[in-house]
Amino acid sequence: MAVPVAFFAVFFAYPVSAIVGRGLKTDGTWQFGRVGEVLTRPDILDVLWFTTWQALASTALTLLIALPGAYVFARFDFPGKQVLRAVVTVPFVLPTVVVGTAFLALLGRGGLLDELWGVRLDTTVWAILLAHVFFNYAVVVRTVGGLWSQLDPRQEEAARVLGAGRFAAWRRVTLPALGPAVAAAALMVFLFTFTSFGVVQILGGPAHSTLEVEVYRQTALLLDLPTAAVLTLVQFAAVGAILAVHAVTVRRRERALKLVDPAQTSRRPQGPGQWALLGGVLLTALLLILLPLGVLVERSFDGPGGYGFGYYEALQSAGGSGSTFLVPPLEAVGNSLRYAFIATVIALVVGGLAAAALTRRAGRLVRGFDALLMLPLGVSAVTVGFGFLITLDKPPLDLRTSWILVPLAQALVGVPFVVRTMLPVLRAVDERLREAAAVLGASPLRAWREVDLPLVRRAVLVAAGFAFAVSLGEFGATVFIARPDNPTLPVAVARLLGRSGELNYGQAMALSTILMLVCAVSLLLLERIRTDRSGEF
Amino acid sequence: MNTTKKYAATALAAALGVTVLAGCGGSDGTSAGSGASKGSGSKTVTLVTHDSFNASEKVLKQFTKESGYTVELLKSGDAGSALNQEILTKGSPRGDVFFGVDNTLLSRALDNDLFTAYEAKGLDRVADGTEQDDKHRVTPVDTGDICVNYDKKYFADKKLDPPQTFEDLIKPEYKNLLVTENAASSSPGLGFLLGTIAAQGEDGYQDYWKKLKANGVKVVDGWEQAYHEEFSGSAAGKKAKADRPLVVSYASSPPVEVLYADPQPKEAPTGVSTGTCFRQTEYAGLLNGAKNEAGGKALLDFLISRTFQEDVPLNMFVNPVVKDAKLPEIFTEFGETVDKPATVAPEKIAANREQWVQAWHSIAVK
């Protein structure tokens, strides 16, 4: 418990409260009157309203589209399943600049929809919603599907034997068991879309602005710290409220579940209904996820002299041209992997300890800490980054120019994933097993190692995968944090996109494709490790 | 209080311990260790700058050879964000020299006492009008012009003359052709707005923008989107079937289109409407509280030396500020000279920026 508390105190609570304080305090007195002033401004009210309803709509749409996907991935066995599961996770880690470009190519002028039906969706809210589904599909599939595949289908079968209809059995047996996971997934998606930054900025045009975009504008561009501080507090309050509601729902639904090896629960689809479901899900994934990714790949090969590897070759020479602008792509890949690896380790240690502590003790204080751990997702990267600047500036904590800040900031975003993924599974572990271990003389640590760990190893790997993927594609925090000149892949892509010229654009597409491949391969490796060990369950 | 400190120490030890271990396993250890080298002080000089800063490694090595200092770069986001980070950390700066404050933000930097005065060697060679501070707290390093670019092919096909001035842009023959950037969040967008204010006056610019809006100007958020997705003259725009032949970009964009095309065309595919330009000057300064003042001064001298100045155009696509620097051929051949760029005094920008942008937003966006 001490480690995660300290981690959050030093690298989150302290910097964020310092920057908010800087905005709201003048000459040592708090200026809470500012809150009312800012909140009655009509432009700010517009922002608040838009932020909320687009997040609600995005969450609903994502659940609608992704829950069948979660079911299919959890219960059906089909060729290419592992690859596909890795692929649908790739969008989640792509930098938003890249995704925005891909979606414009699809939904904008001359895009596929335009050519087929003359429909253009850019700068409409539809483009934002679809991009949010694209980004968050994997969150639902992984969070809900991960648990679903470990639920014993025999319980549902038993209910049916006892006379319940197919739907009633599902509703009475499976749905309650899945509840916490669905709630957790919905919460994640809501948080991401509520705090959406890049997607809204690129696809929404300047007329649509979320709270997060506004905080960025006020802090980084205008240096209007008072307004930024108020908006940060509003975002805090909103996120806090959501988390409180979530905590109540989860607690009411939580129960010990009998978890089984996922290998036993999935099988080939049977009958036309199941095949149709599988087909439908695959088609959705194809249209919504593979198509935008495909557009990127297509553009990366579409050189001036026809299709070819021109841009990829150019990446090589750019590295050797002796300027400080670009690093060789391989080095950027190396930087990205190294940072992501370190961030994952930090996130696993901090998040794992926190999740363990949260399962064990259920006091009010601990539950509060549960919510606190989620807050980094609801606080803008620029607030955290600027907070680092003004707090971590004295030895021994003068980390402002140190490379370690990048993985630290990435871990901050990774920890909630670890906690969210592990908690439902950890809480579902039957308490009597732990009690039995304790009765037999095991120390709490030993009991955790012998009872919990084997059962949750799968969740740990899923969590690690998420933390790793998030770190790999993390862009917001990384750009705000001073770093030596070793850019990560997303930063390198953004730099290329920031320049005119065909070759630069093509190279950005090529680099995005490489980033996509690195993510896909990392995630695929993870899937492999997981199946190799699942025999131990 | 005491416990908080203990927690802090534990956390740091835990985090660092973990990462050091991980770092040993996973890295080749070449690029990660900037923190260590910085402490040694006198041999390293740290240049804090924005993400667009770029220089040849060869030229930076030349500096090391001449002065004995090694330059360490600290890129810190886009220009506005980089400056604001400096303001927040003033008095305890992360580096010695800051480069990248332009005339639209200069007053903010000076009002915050960010820089120590230093008269760089060779300051007498800089172009007239670029030096804005008589106390020499900042040194001009480069200039660039934000101008409307046009798609040559579009206007040739339509047998229409491309627009040349701000007045042209509101004429009916150019209806629905221009795309620009959000002045609230994008530096070319702000430059273009300031250009219209310089040309139409503080009283006239709102009317001008109403007319521009009625004439179908499209506002997108950033330069990337305007140039790559909306502008039909850029290579990426062609591919994206973009349909706006006019875009707010830089005077140096046409040579860049040539430089990064393969094969290189005989003529630039885009041109510059030279009567629509706003001039940006970028400055560098010695940070207040710099640990390595001597190194910082040497670096400022170097930034306006011919060696560095002649390296600027092909790395940052802006013009050198000193008069004796030679432009690369690709600039003289494909670029256009802007004779009378619009400018607005930094103090005036500082005093009105917010209000101008606010008024612009309600006309052009809502």
Automatic annotation (TrEMBL), chain A:
Residues annotated as transmembrane: 53-74, 86-106, 126-145, 181-205, 225-248, 275-297, 339-359, 371-392, 404-423, 459-482, 505-526
InterPro entries reported for this sequence: MetI-like, MetI-like_sf
Keywords: Cell inner membrane, Cell membrane, Membrane, Transmembrane, Transmembrane helix, Transport
Residues forming coiled coils: none
Annotated membrane topology: Multi-pass membrane protein
PROSITE patterns: ABC_TM1
Domain ABC transmembrane type-1: from-to ranges: 48-244, 333-526
One cellular-component annotation, GO: plasma membrane
Gene3D superfamilies: MetI-like
Superkingdom to which the source organism belongs: Bacteria
Subcellular location: Cell inner membrane; Cell membrane
Pfam families associated with the record: BPD_transp_1
Family of the protein in this entry: Belongs to the binding-protein-dependent transport system permease family.
Name recorded for this polypeptide: Iron ABC transporter permease
UniProt organism field: Kitasatospora albolonga
TrEMBL record, chain B:
Signal peptide: 1-22
Keyword annotations of the record: Signal
InterPro entries reported in the protein's UniProt record: ThiB-like
Organism (species): Kitasatospora albolonga
Cross-referenced Gene3D superfamilies: Periplasmic binding protein-like II
Protein name according to UniProt: Thiamine ABC transporter substrate-binding protein
Membrane-spanning segments: none
